[in-house]
Amino acid sequence: MTTVGGLPRTVLRLHRTAAIVWVVFILAAVAWLVWLNEITAAAARAAVNSCPRNTGICASVWASLDYSEPTGWISTLVYYSFWAVAAWAGGSLIGRELESGTAQLAWTQGVTPTRWLAVTLALPALLIVLGGAVFVPVYRWAWSANRDLMGDDWTFPDVFAAHGPAVVAYGLCALAVGALTALLLRRSLPALGVTVAVMVLINQVLERYREDFWPTVTRASAGRSEVPNDWWQADTGVYHPPSHFWPMHLVETGILLTVTAAATLAAFRLLRRRTS
Q: Would you say residue 122 has pLDDT above 80?
């Protein structure tokens, strides 16, 4: 029997495997970053220094294969992990419970639908936030520790998101959209597919218009060679300097959290309407 007091424990046990996979994934990413910067970076730099002079290709290949490329893969995997969160939320976390009747059974045993949904969303949301709180500071340290070996700059989509709370906001947004989709469709596989499709669309729109989130700096008379390499050329003659990162990043984070709040509110309203 599922009681009010035992609901968090029941939800945690039900999704224990997914929670373990998430924790292992984040810890593995962090451990890989530490290894790359404490062990691999020194070896890659030694290889670069051993290249004959005036052979930039030799140096760039060693740095890319040993250090820059793995670091880039870590940010990419964590950035797009919201797809997995969306599948988890839409297909398993909510959709499967509604399709199998497990949720309806809990509602007859002292657990209100609203409380059931709140706890069902709160536990994975907490894991997402804690995972980001661990990963983001380590990634920021790792990304800036050996910039001479890195090929990616702050304008790359995965690097941009992984540098701050946006990467967490993507996960929370996927969770909320997944819950709403599952409540609408009440089937696990359709909810999974629709949720992932919606999140991909949101991601593509935000990436497309990311450069418009903050006013650019106009340098109409400047040639491309006169602009620092770490500036983002948004259009001909207009740029974003690195100082624009945080305003742009926080705007994107705000958009994602707004969608998250709207989807969460819609999910609770839909649930109350269907169970009243």
A: yes
Mean pLDDT of 28-42: 90
Q: 252: Cβ–Cβ under 8 A, 6 or more apart, which residues?
A: 161, 166, 169, 206, 210, 213
| Half-sphere exposure at residue 181, Cβ-oriented, CA atoms within 13 angstroms | 27
- What is the DSSP code (8-state) at residue 151? -
Residue 204 has pLDDT above 70, yes or no: yes
The listed range with the strongest mean pLDDT (63-67, 143-147, 222-226) is 143-147
Q: 81 in the Ramachandran plot: left (φ > 0), alpha (ψ -120 to 50) or beta? A: alpha
Please give the order of strands across the beta sheet that includes 217-218: 217-218, 238-240, 232-235
* Percent of the chain topping pLDDT 90: 37
| 8-state DSSP, 153 | -
Q: How far apart are CA 220 and CA 238, in angstroms?
A: 7
Please state the domain extents for the chain: 7-275
Per the structure block, which two tokens stand in for 197? Answer: 């499709």
